[in-house]
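Q: What does the assembled structure look like for these inputs?
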Amino acid sequence: MMEEHALSLDDYIAILKRRKWQLIIPVVVLSVIAMITAVLLPPTYRSTATILIEQQEIPDELVRSTVTSFADQRVQTISQRVMTTENLGKLIESYHLYPELMQRYGLVSAVEQMREDIKLEMISADVIDPRSGRPGEATIAFSLSFESESPAMAQRVANDITSLFLSENLKDRQESAKQTAVFLQNEANKLADRLSLLEAKLAEFKEKHGDSLPELKALNMQLIQRTEDHLRDTEQAVRTLQERKIYLEGQLAQIDPYSELFSSDGRRVLGPVDRLKALEAEYAEVAARYSSQHPERMRLEREIATLRQQVGKSANVTAGLERALDAQQEELADLRKRYSNEHPDVKALTSAIAITKRQLATARKAGSADPAGVSDADNPAYVQLQAQLHSADVELRSLQESREETRTKLAELEQRITKGPRIEQEYQALTRDHENAMATYSEVKQRLVAAELGEAMETERKGERFSLIEPPLLPEQPAKPNRLAIAFLGLVLAFGGGVGNLALREALDRSVHDVRDMEMIIMAPPLAVIPFIETEADIRRRNRQRLQLILGSILAVTLVTGAVHLFVMPLDVAWFKVLDRAGLLNTAPPSAR
Amino acid sequence: MERIKEALERARAERAAARLDDGTELSALQADVQADLQADLQADVQDDEVEEAEDDSSGVQVSYTKTRNLSVNYERLRAKRVLINEARSPIVDAYNILRTRILQRLRPNGWNAVAVTSPRPGCGKTLTCINLAISLAREVNQTVLLVDLDLRRPSVIRYFTDEDLPGVSDYLLEQHELAEILVNPSIERLVILPGHSSFTNSSEMLSTPRMVRLVTELKTRYPDRIVLFDMPPLLTGDDVLAFSPYIDAIMLVVEASGTTRDDLRRAWNLLDGKRILGVVLNKADGGSAGDGYY
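A:
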């Protein structure tokens, strides 16, 4: 690649000479376009309303608002609500805004354009936060503006949008406060339901496990103490009674139930018991001597049976039988030493032992169940004793029953104490739930009251509010465009474009222009530099072209002017319009009123 | 008008051919030529045999007895940018500078055959060739022969006349002898060898033995004659390269603001190793042409 040589002023002049039209044409064309743009851009009027965000009237310490978001955030929220397609669509329809857009692209693009034309600007102030003492920036107001090609339209639409903002804010705050109150009310209701449920549960639990509740522990202990005392007393009484009974039985045993009976011959008539004893002794003798079929033995047997029935199966019968059995067995053993088993005596004795054994068994079975004593006793002392014994017996039985009852009761009480800890756990869980619910409920109740206060404040418009301090005015001067700036900028850009075109062409041009270009390649000066040879025809042609250009330009300008005058608007009107737009005409803009 | 002129020319040619045969009626020819010349043409034709005559003085005085004379219209030439007897102007000065520098390079080396070419068509190669030839012819120490060897698009003679004159192509096809096709455009010490019809296989034609013989004869016939060959563009064919062994030096014509640097570089590299006279920057802006001293 060849090295770039630094361009000197002469080179620039040469380039400029060579390419003057490539500079002049873009500059002229772009300048004309810029000028036309600056003049023809439609004027835009802007109408602005200023809205102050006022703090609430009632001190914060007394009533706290339930609407706590930051003012600017709220303004943004409201703007989103206001600038819905529905709201803007209504405005567009009622004022017939953007007729072209509506016709060509429909409502959506018109609404989009309108959103662009509506401007929301926050006005902030440097303030010191009274609570934290730190400096900060707070939004104290905001401005709303609308831009339109007609000043009257700008004012009217700005007016409508402003009132939309104000009413939306009011609605929003009231709604918000109301929502808070309603929410808290719902929460309170839910909590109340839960509370009653818990209370019912608690009551049920108490009912079920009322005896074992921890709070009854002391009482239960006391009851146990008392029951134990009672038990001890009862047992004492039982023992005393038992002793007394034994004593009485002993007494009773010493007294003959029957009064002394004497026969006519003066002989003492034996009582059935004594007679039974005598007969039993006799029977033992007879049974040893005779077989069971012997009439004597059978008579004795019958008599003994009768007597026995009479006497009952007393303990002494059993004792007597046992004694007899022992004696018989001793005798048998003695006999066996002497005789074989086949000896008649041995045989007889063996069968006698068998009978006695049977008797003993019968006696044992029949005995003991019967109360002591004799039912038909007629000895007064015996009867008295018997009565005493009987009463003691009854008393004893009642005491024993009482003792059993006491014992049962004691066991029950002890069980209550044992169950205590487990019940306590459950009970405490229930209680805790209840207490928590209670606390939450009361808190929510408090808040509800506060929220209702806040709601009342919002409803009566004593809270923070937007107040319109400057309604949208009828704009007198167009806000846009800045024609001078556009024209100036256009000229600068045109010149820049021309120079850019020149530079681009020069940079893209790879051809040999002058001696220096050539020398860089062939490393030697050229033999000669021959200028372009101009002929008469060339000069004539050039002159003719110039003339044509000038005449054509004049003709074109005339034609365009004439066309504008005839088909667009008369030239004098256009002239005043241009003057007006340039701001040179010092007249008020056409008023809508 | 045109037809009458053509008829006149044809008659004149026949007469000339007839006179060449006996070689006696020189004065008659002179009178004939004189009559045809334009009033302001200042070439004085002298009694001199072209074929055999040797110059004996410092200045070369030539009278063309065998060569066809061509009357030229100055207006026409000027309209085609050919400078014949301009007053001193920057352009004439530029051509004179070129002439002098070429002569300074040719003479010490004893060269006399120069090919003129350019990287691409449209650089003004043929016009430069003609103007240089005129400028060289004005210098009294030598004669100049301008040969149109652009066999693809022969155009030299178009600058002088609309007549359909025979040229190199006819010589190569052996239809005419050399003496029949040489033309003197009523300018002293300048003879033109036109091209006439075009060849598509021009580079092969340039290498034919007849061509080689022609070139050798043109170069060596007279020691004081400078032969300029108008060649096709360098980058569009191999004519120049094929022909380069028969010539002494090459001159390159470059169009200002027309030839790209790449083309110039390629052309220059192609000629590397050949005898290069130099490069001429043609169609330059007034500003870069010279100092504008005069």
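The radius of gyration of chain A is 69 Å.
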